[in-house]
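Per your request, structure below.
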């Protein structure tokens, strides 16, 4: 049995038709055809592990009832997970009827994961246990020369406070890239060129672990879904150096044919408008990204650069230039949200931007600008996870890859530097 089988590998094996087809509903798992007993056991093991994690504390009998499997099957699988130090017994359930059942929990100290948000200006790294808890954070400047990035990332990871004594050690690294990812490789980045770097291979070889590359907006929506918003259809608009859109459809991340789904910042809103690094003119992110708006404000003030903190102070003091910049943000964000609603019809829209996080009333203004009746019932909210959504989403990706599970729901905690 391979309890740590990669979930993508399982999906590929199912697609071949060689192995049994497993129908999974919310509370049942049913094997429809016969095939490899080892694969069936692997799938059942992953489902048991997923149930233990998402229920936080649960007994063997409750797992059997939840999954529709026999108590003998559950007992055998649980024992093997305990032997592999992935599951621990944490005490008895508080019940007055009969023998008190023993509760099970994931051994969150069995290993640890790292997520790194490779931003255009700043790199943020987060170390986490297998439940997204006991996290520590470190930030550095992004190197100006992309060829230095791999060595900088290696030094960053090795300089962090890494847990000791876990049986599996470092079990996964996720990199959040501000660009397009295809086949675990960078295919396009508008504001820094990483396409010639073999990030996954070189970091994987150095640390002897699996390395996952993912678009930062995709990681952000995974973080929001896992730690905050439990909706089947989520649109997460991430606004930083550019504008990205993370899309969850029926609880699944949607990335499109070659990873370019959600590149909403490169939808054209002004014909023959401002030049964009993607090659087109008039792209959305040339009018609404934080990078663009702060550059515009700096030009108006005759400065080389202005930070968001400086903008915030100007806006609160009702500086005319800062107020006009905010008006532009509201105008184009309203267009952006309207187009997202019409294209995807999500249950909720999450806006992850400093403009809405530090000025919550701006979200209301964007809502009021959406005049269409068909959009009136959609919930629009600012991100609760804020800048950590990318990091927490990357933690989820690495945890699921290591444990071979598909669904993950965790509790949000405050991070420490």
């Amino acid at each position: 049995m391979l309890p740590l089988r990669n979930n993508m590998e399982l999906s590929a094996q199912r697609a071949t038709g060689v192995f049994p087809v497993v129908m999974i509903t919310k509370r049942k798992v049913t094997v429809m055809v016969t095939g490899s007993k080892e694969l069936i056991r692997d799938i059942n093991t992953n489902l048991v592990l997923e149930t233990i994690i998402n229920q936080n504390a649960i007994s063997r009998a409750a797992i059997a009832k939840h999954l529709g499997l026999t108590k003998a099957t559950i007992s055998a699988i649980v024992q093997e997970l305990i032997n592999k130090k992935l599951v621990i017994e944490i005490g008895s359930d508080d019940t007055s009827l009969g023998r008190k059942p023993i509760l099970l929990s994931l051994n969150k100290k069995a290993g640890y994961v790292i997520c790194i948000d490779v931003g255009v200006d700043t790199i943020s790294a987060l170390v986490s246990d297998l439940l997204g808890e006991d996290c520590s954070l470190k930030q550095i400047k992004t190197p100006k020369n992309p060829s230095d990035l791999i060595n900088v990332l290696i030094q960053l990871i090795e300089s962090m406070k890494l847990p000791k004594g876990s049986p599996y050690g470092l079990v996964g690294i996720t990199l959040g890239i501000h660009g397009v990812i295809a086949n675990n490789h960078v295919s396009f980045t508008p504001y820094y060129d990483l396409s010639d770097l073999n990030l996954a291979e070189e970091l994987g070889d150095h640390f002897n672990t699996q390395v996952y590359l993912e678009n930062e907006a995709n990681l952000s929506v995974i973080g929001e879904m896992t730690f905050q918003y439990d909706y089947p259809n989520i649109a997460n608009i991430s606004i930083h150096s550019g504008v990205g859109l993370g899309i969850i459809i029926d609880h699944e991340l949607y990335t499109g044919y070659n990873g370019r789904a959600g590149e909403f910042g490169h939808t054209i809103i002004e014909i023959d408008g401002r030049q964009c690094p993607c090659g087109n003119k008039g792209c959305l992110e040339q009018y609404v990204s934080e990078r663009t708006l702060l550059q515009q404000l700096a030009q108006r003030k005759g400065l080389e650069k202005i930070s968001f903190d400086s903008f915030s102070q100007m806006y609160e003091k009702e500086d005319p230039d800062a107020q006009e910049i905010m008006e532009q943000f509201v105008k184009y964000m309203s267009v952006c949200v309207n187009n997202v609603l019409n294209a995807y019809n999500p249950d909720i829209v999450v806006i992850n931007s400093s403009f809405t996080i530090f000025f919550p009333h701006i979200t209301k203004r964007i809502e009021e600008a959406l005049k269409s009746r068909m959009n009136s019932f959609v919930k629009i909210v600012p991100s609760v996870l804020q800048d950590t959504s990318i990091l927490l989403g990357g933690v989820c990706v690495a945890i699921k890859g290591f444990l071979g599970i598909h669904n993950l729901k965790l509790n949000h905690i405050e991070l420490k530097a």
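Residues 229-383 form a domain with the Nucleotidyltransferase; domain 5 fold (CATH 3.30.420.40).

Regards,
D.
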